[in-house]
Design brief:
By secondary structure, this protein is an all-alpha fold. It has helices spanning 6-28, 35-46, 51-54, 62-73, 81-105, 107-119, 140-151, 156-172, 179-190, 197-217, 242-253, 255-258, 267-293, 304-317, 340-351, 357-376, 386-397, 401-407, 413-428, 439-450, 458-467, 479-498. The chain starts with 5 loop residues before the first helix and ends with a helix.
Length: 499
C-alpha cells in the first residue's frame, strides 16, 4: 500500500468494514428482530413531520436528525430507510474516526486502528445496519473531542467552539455527558489560571439551555406512562443497593470481557479467550501510558482515557448494566459500543509502542475479529420483532389510541396489536400505575383503546393484555385487574350487541 495515497488507504479500510456489515445485514437482516427500529420505522414511514414522530426517545435528540435523513433516503431505497441511514452513518463515523487518529497520532497508527474497525467487535458489527439507541453512532464524539483539544489554541473562539460541541453532543445523546468532566480536567491541568474556559461554559450553556426548552415544551409522546422529563426510558438508579456498588469491579471481567463473544457461552472454550483479550487490553493501556510518560505519545489526547474509565464506572452503577453468565446478545451490550472504539484505539496505540508489538497487535485484533466472525456462524433468526415493537408503540402513543391504530395498518398488523395490548396492559392494569385515575378508570381506558382497532384483532389485543400479566421481562400487570378488564369488555360488547 506504499504507493497508495494515505487518505485512500484509510478509505479502503472503511470500505472493507462496510462490505462486512453489508454482508452481515444481507444474510441475517437483524433489523427484523429490532423492536425499537421497527416501531420507529413505522413512524417515519407514516410521513408526519411532528416532533413526537421524528424523535425516538426524549433523551436521544440525535434521533431527530436520523429520522429526517431516513425520511429523505426512503424516497430512493427499497430497503427500510433506517437500515440505509445506519449503514451510511456507520461508514462516515468510522471514516472520521480514522482521519482524526491520523491527524493526532499519524498514518501508521490510523492504519492499525482501521484494521481493527473492519470486524471490530460482535457487539458493534450489527449496528452497521441496525439503527436505534445511538450508542454506536455516538462513539464518534469522543474522537472529535480528542481532535478539538489536540488542536486547541487557547483562544476564546476555540473554547467557545468546544463548548458548543459538548452541548450538541449531549443533546445528541445523554451518553456524551462523560465528555464534560474530561474537558474540565484537560483545561484545569493545561491552563489552570486561564479564563478562556469560561467561553466553553457559555457555549455549553447556550446549547443545553435550548435543549432544556425543547424537552420542556415539545411533545415527544410517552404520555400514557408519564415518563418524567429528566428520565431515561423511565429507569432509576439503585445506588442504595450494596450489590450495585460491587458492579464497579465486576464490570471489568464481566460485561467488558463478555463483549468479545456475544454467543451462548461454552465455558470451557470461550471464557479463557475473554480473559486473554482482557489481559491484552491491560497490556496495551499500560504500554500507552508508559509511552506518554517517555514523550513518545502526545500528552493531551491521553486525557480521553479518563472518559473510558468514567464511562465504565457510570455504566456499572447504572440500571443498564448487564451481566449474563449463560447467554449473550449484542443488543444487551449496546451501551458499551459507545466507548469500546476509543478503548480499542488506546490499546492498539499502546501495543504499537512497546516490545513484541507484532504479537500483541495480532492477538488483540485477531481475537476481536474472531468474536465478530462467530456472528456469521449461526442460523438466521426466525423470530419476529413486531410484537415487541407494538409494546414500544403503546408506550409512545398509548395516550392516543386512534392515532396508534392508524399507524399499524398493513403487514403483521395482528402482531403489532398484540404488542400494543401488552404495553397498554402493563401500564394500566397495575395498582401502582402512574398513568392517572382509579383502577376502574384505567380499565375503562384500556377497553376504549381496544375499540379503536378492528374487531377481528380484539382477540390479539386481549392476548397481549394477558401476556402483560405473565411476562417477567417488563413490569407485570395484575391478574385480578385483567379479569376485571375482561368482564368490562364483555359487558360493553353485550350492550353494543343489544343496541
Amino acid at each position: 500500500m506504499r504507493f497508495i495515497p494515505p487518505a485512500i488507504q484509510l478509505l479502503i479500510l472503511v470500505l472493507l468494514g462496510s462490505v462486512v456489515r453489508f454482508v452481515f445485514g444481507y444474510l441475517f437482516e437483524p433489523w427484523t428482530q429490532a423492536p425499537d427500529q421497527l416501531a420507529w420505522q413505522l413512524l417515519i414511514d407514516e410521513g408526519s413531520w411532528s416532533y413526537d414522530q421524528l424523535i425516538h426517545y426524549p433523551h436521544e435528540g440525535g434521533s431527530v436528525f436520523i429520522a429526517l435523513l431516513s425520511r429523505f433516503l426512503g424516497w430512493f431505497s427499497p430497503l427500510p430507510s433506517l437500515v440505509v441511514s445506519a449503514f451510511l452513518l456507520d461508514f462516515f463515523s468510522r471514516l472520521i474516526q480514522m482521519l482524526i487518529v491520523r491527524r493526532v497520532f499519524g498514518q501508521r497508527d490510523a492504519l492499525i486502528f482501521g484494521i481493527w474497525t473492519i470486524l471490530a467487535l460482535p457487539i458493534i458489527l450489527p449496528w452497521g445496519t441496525v439503527n436505534y439507541g445511538l450508542h454506536s453512532l455516538a462513539s464518534l464524539f469522543p474522537f472529535v473531542l480528542m481532535y478539538l483539544i489536540h488542536r486547541s489554541d487557547s483562544t476564546p473562539r476555540s473554547h467557545l467552539s468546544i463548548g458548543l460541541f459538548l452541548g450538541f453532543a449531549v443533546w445528541f445523546s445523554y451518553i456524551n455527558v462523560v465528555l464534560i468532566p474530561v474537558y474540565v480536567l484537560v483545561e484545569f491541568f493545561r491552563s489552570p489560571r486561564s479564563r478562556n474556559a469560561l467561553w466553553s461554559l457559555l457555549g455549553l450553556s447556550i446549547v443545553l439551555g435550548i435543549h432544556v426548552g425543547v424537552r420542556t415544551f415539545a411533545d415527544p409522546g410517552f404520555q400514557l406512562d408519564q415518563i418524567p422529563s429528566g428520565s431515561i426510558r423511565g429507569t432509576e438508579f439503585t445506588l442504595s443497593d450494596p450489590e450495585t456498588w460491587k458492579q464497579l469491579y465486576k464490570v471489568w471481567y464481566g460485561p467488558l470481557a463478555d463483549s468479545l463473544l456475544v454467543v451462548p457461552n461454552q465455558e470451557n472454550v470461550y471464557r479463557p479467550i475473554r480473559y486473554v483479550w482482557l489481559a491484552l487490553m491491560g497490556w496495551g493501556i499500560m504500554a500507552y501510558l508508559r509511552a506518554v510518560k517517555l514523550g513518545n505519545r502526545p500528552q493531551v489526547p491521553s486525557w480521553l482515557l479518563v472518559a473510558v474509565f468514567l464511562f465504565l464506572c457510570l455504566y456499572a452503577l447504572s440500571p443498564f448494566y448487564h451481566n449474563s453468565p449463560t447467554v449473550t446478545h449484542y443488543v444487551l451490550y449496546r451501551h458499551l459500543c459507545y466507548i469500546l472504539p476509543l478503548l480499542a484505539l488506546f490499546v492498539t496505540l499502546g501495543l504499537n509502542s512497546g516490545k513484541l508489538r507484532q504479537i500483541g497487535l495480532v492477538l488483540f485484533i485477531g481475537l476481536s475479529s474472531y468474536g465478530s466472525l462467530l456472528l456469521f456462524d449461526q442460523s438466521k433468526s426466525e423470530e419476529s420483532g413486531e410484537k415487541a415493537a407494538g409494546w414500544v408503540l403503546a408506550l409512545k402513543f398509548g395516550h392516543d389510541p386512534q392515532r396508534l391504530a392508524g399507524l399499524i395498518q398493513g403487514e403483521h398488523e395482528a402482531e403489532y396489536v398484540e404488542g400494543i395490548g401488552w404495553g397498554m396492559g402493563m401500564v394500566l392494569l397495575r395498582s401502582d400505575s402512574i398513568a392517572g385515575g382509579s383502577n376502574d378508570e384505567q380499565i375503562q381506558q384500556l377497553v376504549n383503546a381496544m375499540e379503536h382497532f378492528p374487531l377481528e384483532y380484539h382477540p390479539e389485543f386481549i392476548q397481549g393484555v394477558q401476556f402483560s400479566t405473565q411476562n417477567t421481562g417488563t413490569p407485570q400487570s395484575e391478574q385480578a385487574l385483567f379479569d376485571r378488564f375482561l368482564e368490562t369488555y364483555e359487558s360493553s360488547a353485550t350492550n353494543s350487541g343489544k343496541n
